[in-house]
Specification:
The structure holds two protein chains of two kinds. Chain A is mainly alpha-helical. Helix content of chain A is 50%, strand content 4%. Chain A folds into three domains: 148 residues, no CATH class; 194 residues, no CATH class; 55 residues. Chain A is built from 24 helices and eight strands. A two-stranded antiparallel ribbon of chain A has the order 1-2. A two-stranded antiparallel ribbon of chain A has the order 3-4. A two-stranded antiparallel sheet of chain A has the order 5-6. In chain B, 31% of the residues lie in helices and 10% in strands. Chain B is globular. Classes of the chains: A mainly alpha, B alpha/beta. Chains A and B meet through helix 3, helix 6, helix 7, helix 8 and helix 17 of A and helix 5, helix 6 and helix 8 of B.
């Protein structure tokens, strides 16, 4: 959505006070999405924002705890100036600024005011107050006088908006505009568009019917994909910082493969949940996925590339045959390789990730004086496989408690090495992948996949996580009944993920009393 | 190179067409370039931290004698050339006070801030306490770098839920310090940047409306917004500094632009980047850009490793058997000695950077700390703490002090007092102390 000329907003309408909501800082993705929505995807952001803080398994929750340090501020300030300079440069100004000053070297409050009012509403996610408009117009005027250049002056005023708390943090006032912002960040991982802001201005979000109409419109938009991806990226901790692999041991693994692996899992998610409107639980058993040639090398399946060397990889839809151990996202590289240290696989890390990310169970941290001599010495002739090494480790009762929860799950994935490549032996000994999950026995990764799919904790977990993601916090005890009903409806309607998103989006828990 | 006061004034007047206040005369250096001309005071003191994970090996670092003329044992041998310019405090402790030992996290927290945070809200770390006193008149209040490719430092701000971000890339740090906004303090002419003037007037025009953040804010949110405004003031301060004619600093030369090297956790990458960072920080200090820096080799659980090896330093601490003959873990020990060599090489660069009759190192103190006594069992006692440099004569050096069982915070308290922080005790609960290491107070 580029800036458009018609922009009519109603007056701010007070809504009933709702439960305390913590102020959330924009994530790096949300920042980028807003800039691209408002000014177009040609704007380069430059610079890197500080990594998000992950709390309770979600950076959406951490966002309600982080602030902006001096180092962050320096970065935000530099990015803001770089973005604003691009918006007003000679190539873009006609389209993006939308008006021309009377003189290129003198202030023009009318043009400045018109531009900053439009841009400001999208950046602040509500109409500017009169004081805000006046202050930013005055800022542009002063900067134009200092630089003798209208557009440069205007860019400094725009940069000021981009580094203001009203942009970088999400305001929590009980207004329809804050409601609109909650919806758009939840469903699109971006700020509200003009249609949504105008609906908010007319008070439509305060009626169940008006709210539903907007939510349905947003769900029908292609931008819902960004919202689905944002949630799963957050839940799977995909932040582009996968563990590097020791190249002499895993020559097929590279940073490009790591990025492709993240994308593979997200493509699998989007295809099953949004395109096919499938059952959420089938994410753990689906044989359908997408591969690049680099990834296909790790999966040892034929996927040809016809792009020239160095060009972006193309994606090919691929279905693993019946009987293959590759089944569902837990057998994908983004799970097996990301939850392994640089030089080997790790049943413990994989089991812990499965318990925490997929089943929402907490695994305690290891005791401080843990000794792993036996576990990780892959050259010990007495303990050739990870299973044997971990069994020896579990003889220590302090360790046994946690390992018996996580290891049996992770051991089922031992056919995948530290880079996610298939193997049947470790140090010349056949790998035993049997195990059980909550009383359901299985023989291999495919069996684990089915057990996870059918475990009641699996759908319950995603309901809880998605609710936490939307609220920016773990649901309170008094919201337990709401979460339970969400779960019941999720099951009753065949575990359709978009339906779950919709139910949360229209709920009064997200929107305050309607 | 020295610069006469006459030459400086002439240079300034040549640029006097612009309407900026002349710098205070007390910023001008004396003829030797080693002190401020008006008062004869020494150049400003500089504080650095070096945080290295995973401790040292018992029996391989505590010297046999205390006091002066101690002999470094094998793991501290790389510091021999600093023997008379360092202090080694052995046997100190981090106290848990019944709180869980979050391995490799609790150690840095106590080392840097003298306490374990409650929930995820931290106390300010020592570098921030010191920067509040010595870092307020420089372009950068402090500079944080990491050597293992990650972006998290051990520096924390009061109330912030997570550590301050750090820069892993020398090329990026170069751009930040010596990019277009760098003003050479020795340039003959000074023209304030029109952009900086414009930004300053913009910040002033919007400052009131920024305060009108819409929402019923709880105490925690108010604190977070307050931190935003504190951070904003630092941006404003940077602008003020950019708009002033900097005092000439004869030792200042613009650092060379480092080649874009790979950034990561391989020891070869760490060694090379540590040298590049040393050079950049040396130039930044000599050019008056900062007086506080933090270097983090990596957190204990970092992926630091050797090329071709399937195990990280951290992995080795857990899995490697103690060699019967040697009495220690050989691979772990290789990393310990490597890290100390890397630190010594880093300090060596600071100590080689000429400034006046001496070097930049002469006005520094670098505080060396680690997370555990014995990494293998995550112990929190019998720890080493070291200081390098005498901070322009404010600390005595060349001593080994044995302080068994004392809070490690004693060293931090001593350094804070030496650098002018008005504090009589530091730390919380058992980590709290009001006792400095008197032997090293000058």
């Amino acid at each position: 959505m580029k800036l458009v000329s018609a922009f009519v907003l109603g007056v701010m309408i007070a809504a009933p006070v709702q439960a305390a909501e913590a102020v959330r800082r924009l994530s790096a993705d949300q920042y980028r999405n807003i800039i691209h929505d408002v000014f177009g995807a040609s704007i380069e952001l430059g610079g890197k924002l500080a990594p998000d803080l992950r709390l309770e398994g979600l950076s959406a929750i951490g966002a309600a705890r982080v602030s902006i340090t001096a180092q962050d501020m320096e970065q935000y300030d530099a990015m803001a100036r770089s973005i604003a300079a691009q918006v007003v440069n000679e190539k873009n100004r006609r389209q993006m600024v939308g008006c021309a000053p009377a003189s290129p070297s003198a202030p023009d409050d009318a043009c400045t005011g018109a531009f900053l009012t439009k841009a400001g509403a999208l950046l602040f996610r509500r109409p500017l107050t009169a004081a805000e408009k006046d202050a930013h117009v005055a800022a542009a005027r002063a900067a134009t006088v200092a630089t003798g250049d209208f557009h440069r002056g205007l860019s400094f005023a725009l940069a000021a908006m981009l580094s203001s708390p009203q942009f970088l943090f999400r305001e929590t006032a009980a207004t329809p505009y804050a409601k609109a912002a909650r919806l758009s960040f939840f469903l699109w991982d971006a700020g509200p568009d003009l249609v949504l802001l105008e609906a908010a201005g007319r008070g439509e979000l305060d009626t169940p019917k008006g709210l539903a109409r907007q939510v349905d419109r947003m769900m029908a938009s292609p931008r819902i994909e960004a919202g689905v991806r944002a949630f799963f990226s957050d839940n799977f901790a995909f932040d582009g910082a996968a563990v590097p692999k020791e190249t002499s041991l895993f020559p097929k693994f590279s940073t490009r493969v790591a990025a492709d692996a993240e994308e593979q899992t997200l493509k699998t998610v989007v295809d099953l949940l949004l395109t096919q409107k499938g059952d959420y639980r089938d994410l753990f058993t689906t044989r359908k996925t997408f591969l690049t040639p680099d990834l296909a090398a790790i999966y040892r399946v034929p996927v040809a590339s016809d792009v020239p060397n160095g060009a972006p990889e193309t994606w090919t839809a691929f279905e693993f045959p019946e009987g293959d151990q590759r089944m569902g996202i837990l057998t994908q590289v983004a799970f097996t390789a990301f939850h392994s240290p640089p030089g080997r696989g790790s049943p413990t890390l994989r089991g812990k990730a499965l318990r925490e990310m997929v089943l929402c169970q907490k695994v305690p941290a290891p005791p401080a004086d843990v000794k792993f001599n036996l576990v990780n010495d892959t050259s010990n002739p007495l303990y050739k496989t990870a299973r044997k090494r971990l069994a020896a480790h579990r003889e220590n009762p302090v360790c046994a408690g946690c390992h018996k929860i996580v290891d049996p799950l992770g051991l089922a994935l031992e056919n995948f090495d530290g880079a996610g490549e298939y193997r049947t032996q470790e140090n010349g000994e056949t790998i035993d992948t049997t195990g059980e999950l909550d009383g359901v026995a299985f023989h291999d990764a495919a069996g684990l996949a089915k057990a996870v799919r059918d475990n009641p904790a699996t759908p319950a977990c995603v309901v809880n996580r998605l609710a936490s993601y939307a609220l920016g916090r773990v649901p309170t005890a008094s919201e337990g009944e709401w979460v339970r009903v969400l779960g019941k409806d999720f099951a009753a309607h065949g575990y359709r993920f978009p339906d779950l998103m919709r139910a949360i989006a229209v709920s009064d828990k997200l929107n305050g009393a309607n | 190179m020295t610069i006469s006061r006459r030459r400086v004034l002439r240079g300034t007047l040549a640029g006097a067409a612009v309407t900026v206040p002349l710098p205070f005369l007390d910023c001008f250096l004396n003829g030797n370039g080693d002190a401020l001309a008006a008062t004869g005071e020494a150049l400003p003191v500089v504080f650095g931290t070096w945080f290295q994970p995973l401790g040292l090996n018992p029996g391989r670092w505590i010297p046999d004698t205390t006091g002066p003329n101690f002999e470094n044992k094998v793991e501290l041998k790389p510091y021999d050339r600093f023997r008379d310019r360092m202090n080694l405090i052995s046997g100190v402790r981090y106290f848990l006070d019944g709180r869980p030992n979050e391995t490799h996290i609790t150690g840095p927290q106590i080392a840097m801030s003298g306490e374990i945070p409650v929930a995820s809200t931290s106390a300010p770390s020592i570098d921030n306490l010191i920067a509040d006193v010595i870092g307020t008149r420089t372009r950068f209040r402090s500079i944080e770098v990491t050597l293992d490719g990650t972006r998290r430092s051990v520096s924390t701000r009061a109330g912030a839920p997570s550590a301050t971000p750090a820069e892993p890339s020398p090329a990026a740090l170069y751009a930040r310090i010596f990019g277009p906004e760098f003003k050479d303090p020795n340039a003959a002419e000074f023209t304030p940047d029109a952009g900086a003037l414009a930004r300053k007037s913009v910040l002033s025009a919007v400052s009131d409306v920024r305060r009108n953040f819409a929402g019923g804010l709880g105490a925690a949110d108010k604190a977070r917004l307050d931190e935003y405004f504190t951070s904003l003031r630092q941006v404003e301060q940077q602008l003020d500094i950019e708009l002033q004619k900097p005092a000439p600093l004869p030792a200042c030369t613009r650092a060379g632009s480092p080649d874009e090297k790979s950034v990561g956790a391989l020891v070869s990458e760490v060694e090379s980047n540590s040298q590049l960072f040393a050079s950049l920080l040396t130039h930044a200090v000599a050019c008056g850009q900062t007086r506080v820096f933090n270097v983090l080799v990596g957190y204990g659980t970092s992926a630091l490793r050797r090329a071709g090896s399937n195990e990280t330093w951290h992995g080795w601490t857990h899995e490697e058997p103690i060699d019967d003959k040697l009495g220690y873990q050989p691979n772990v020990t290789w990393f310990i000695e490597w890290a100390n060599r890397t630190c010594a090489a880093f300090l060596g660069q600071l100590a080689a950077a000429k400034e006046g009759p001496g070097t930049v190192f002469d006005r520094m103190v670098v505080l060396w700390q680690t997370d555990h006594g014995i990494a293998r069992s995550h112990t929190m006692d019998n720890l080493p703490v070291m200081t390098f440099g005498n901070a322009g004569g404010r600390l005595r050096t060349g001593l080994h002090i044995s302080a068994p069982g004392d809070p490690a915070a004693r060293v931090g308290l001593t350094v804070q007092q030496a650098l002018g922080v008005p504090v009589s005790s530091w730390g919380a609960l058992s980590n709290a102390t009001a006792r400095t290491i008197t032997e090293i107070v000058a």
